[in-house]
């Protein structure tokens, strides 16, 4: 179960969940009450449900696990390719990700990932109880020196861009650095040559 969570759930949604965490921690926890009122909403966004049913979502998990096991066993395998629908299906139906259900929808256009988010801020701090961070983020993904790096290029909340003084700090952070503390994910990434976004898909390329 633990391997399934880190490899099946985490690898397909890590970018999206990192965006959620960054939006909440790097901006609002440093913001004044006035900024919180300005950039947040008293109601969540209502995302359309994924058109993929639960059986199809489970098939995505199975593809992830087959890819992982092939690498573990030293078997030759091609790249793993995930569409926005694949990722959204996992967010909608995967029980291990139910804590984040309804908080995000992802869209991949060409070589760019965009995510719409709606985060109930009371889950991270009672100060923000009843307020929601509704916004859109654009993020960059790459392997650099054999390490996965995920950074936020742009973040818009409440219909407004986050002030540049905050974005300058956000852009400095590799949002998935802490995931290297999980042995199963670190072991997996050592077998990965590249993680990139191209032709509207997230592609994981083995060594």
Structure description:
The protein is an alpha+beta fold and 207 residues long. It has one domain. Helix content is 36%, strand content 28%. It contains 6 helices and 8 strands, in the order αααβαβββββααββ. The chain has a 5-stranded antiparallel sheet. It has a 3-stranded antiparallel sheet with strand order 1-8-7. Strand 2 and strand 3 form a beta hairpin. The longest helix has 24 residues. The protein is globular, with a radius of gyration of 17 Å. The chain starts with a helix and ends with a strand.
Key words describing this protein structure:
207 residues; five-stranded antiparallel sheet; three-stranded antiparallel sheet; 6 helices; globular
Give the N-to-C terminal Cα separation: 26 Å
Query: What is the average of the pLDDT values?
Result: 78
**Rg over alpha carbons:** 17 Å
Helix percentage range: 25-40%
The helix count comes to 6
Query: What fraction of residues sit in β-strands?
Result: 25-35%
Low-confidence stretches: 1-6
Which helices and strands occur, and which strands form pairs?
Elements: H1 2-25, H2 33-39, H3 54-72, E1 80-83, H4 84-93, E2 104-109, E3 112-120, E4 132-144, E5 147-157, E6 160-161, H5 164-170, H6 183-189, E7 192-198, E8 201-206
Antiparallel strand pairs: 1-8, 2-3, 3-4, 4-5, 5-6, 7-8
Helix pairs in contact: 1-3, 3-4
Brief overview, please?
This protein is α+β, with helices and mostly antiparallel strands and 207 residues long. 36% of the residues lie in helices and 28% in strands. A five-stranded antiparallel sheet has the order 2-3-4-5-6. It has a three-stranded antiparallel sheet with strand order 1-8-7.
